[in-house]
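In this section we walk through a basic example: taking a raw amino acid sequence and producing a predicted 3D structure, encoded as discrete structure tokens. The instruction is simple. Fold the sequence below.
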Amino acid sequence: MQSSADYPRLHRESDRVSRLLRGLHRLEDGLLAGLLLILLLLAVAQIGLRWIADTGWIEGETVQRSLVLWIALLGALGAARERRHLALDLLPRLLPPWGRRLVWALAQLIAAALCAVMAWYGWSLIELEREAPGVLFAGVPSWVGMLIIPFGFALLTLRFLIAIALGPPNEAPAGEGDAT
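The resulting token sequence is shown next.
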């Protein structure tokens, strides 16, 4: 059993974890914003080069596709972090509170399992690509751009499992927050 003397130490550790998580969230958001800015600048540059010089960066389209993949998975991570990802919530609204919690936990578990499968197959895709790699740009192998698939889905798996441990989000009374 813990003594009352342990509580300040536990509180300090909790503060460190909270600061670490806030820092990781800022890093994640900054990376997402930076990649989106790069994608936008690259697209504008491609349009400008085609319009002005009737040319373009040959690997530009490939890099843009890779950036869209990274942005999509980082966006999914942010949405899962904020619990704003796509969800079907008709059934839980019809259930009593204990049923809502049970269905919510089951949905998080299913989402985690699906993301784990996607991470597994994403890694298999990386291994296949490494056997006969193409070039993404400037000598960078194409599989480097695909690394977000297994790692992004692995992180989503963790996010959904952590969500189960944290419990369902606080529910607004019926009718509130529905009109958007």
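Looking at the output, two observations stand out. The first helix runs from residue 6 to 53. The first strand starts at residue 135 and ends at 137. In the next section we compare this with other chains.
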